[in-house]
Each structure stands twice: as structure tokens, then as C-alpha cells.
Amino acid sequence: MSDCIFCKIAGGEIPAATLYEDQDFRVILDLGPASRGHALILPKEHYANLYEMPEELLGKAASLAKRMGEAMKKALKCDGLNLVQNNGAAAGQTVFHFHIHLIPRYDNDKVGLGWKPGTLTDQDRDELVRLVSSEL
Ligand code: 5GP
Ligand code: ZN
């Protein structure tokens, strides 16, 4: 994708602080970090979102997230780690090139990733189980 910023960063055309690189991925520091060490896993091939990602590459991304998370835990001495992966503007996606956020968490930090829990009614539960499972 010629006008995709993450294609340009992943391909090395635009510089970014790179924590790791291999033939499939580049892992960079986020320019607007939620916390110290916030990083992004970018595939070098353009896929807009989770739905477009080939399963094999997605598996590699998950393995890399684990490896990066372990390295960041040691290096940054963070107390926790959130993996965040947004799909669609409604979900907060702003760059439409698949990426996984690695967000180190520190005790009592003020990073806001939470939600207010609702209620799962019996009727909704039964309908949701039927609706989703019938599409698999
Ligand atoms: P999204 O909201 O799409 O899940 O996340 C996009 C992320 O990319 C944001 O956290 C934003 O700070 C980061 N970002 C956007 N443009 C750039 C850039 O040019 N360089 C880097 N390193 N991060 C970027
Ligand atoms: Zn792209």
C-alpha cells in the first residue's frame, strides 16, 4: 500500500525506533505511548486488520508478542502487560495496517484501558451463543 504509513515504517522507508526486526515483522516504539515502552508489532506485508491476516502470520505475531513481552518485562521491570489490537474505527483503530500494541503496565499507572461492566441477561446470553456459534 503506497500511502500507508506503517508499510513505510515496516519497510524501513520512514525511520522508527526499532526494537526488533525479522523477515516478517518490525517492532517499533509507539510515537504516542500510553506508557513507558509502549511498542507496536507491524507485519511487513500490508493487511488492514485481523480479518485480513493470514492465520500462519497471525500465529507468528502471537509468538513474537510473547517473546517481546518477556524481553520487555525483564528490561523495563514492568508489573504487567496489555496486548491491544484494534479493528475498525469503532474499536479505536486509527492506522489501517494490522498492528498489535504491547503496553507495559506499572503498578498504579493511570493508563485507561478499562470499561464499565454491564450485565449479561439470560436472554442475551442464549441469543449470543446461538448467533456467534452458528457462524463458526
Ligand atoms: P491504533 O489506534 O490504530 O490501534 O494505533 C495506532 C498507533 O500508532 C497509535 O498508538 C499511534 O500513537 C501510533 N502511531 C501513529 N503514527 C505513528 C508513527 O508515525 N510512528 C509511530 N512510531 N507510531 C505511530
Ligand atoms: Zn500498510
Q: How are the elements arranged and paired?
A:
Elements: H1 5-10, E1 18-21, E2 25-29, E3 39-43, H2 55-76, E4 80-84, E5 100-105, H3 122-133
The structure holds guanosine-5'-monophosphate and zinc ion (ZN).
Brief overview:
The chain is α+β, with helices and mostly antiparallel strands and about 140 residues long. It is built from three helices and five strands, in the order αβββαββα.
> Radius of gyration, rounded?
17 Å
Strand content: 15-25%
Order of helices and strands: HEEEHEEH
Tell me which oligomeric state these chains represent.
single chain
- Compute the average pLDDT: 97
What small molecules are bound in this structure?
A: guanosine-5'-monophosphate, zinc ion
Categorize the overall geometry: globular
**How many strand segments?**
5
Q: How would you classify the helix and strand content by structural class? A: alpha+beta
**Biggest beta sheet attributes:** 5 strands, antiparallel
Distance, first to last CA: 31 Å
| Count of helical regions | 3
The stretches of 5 or more residues where confidence is low (pLDDT under 50) are: none
Strand line-up in the sheet with most strands: 1-2-3-5-4
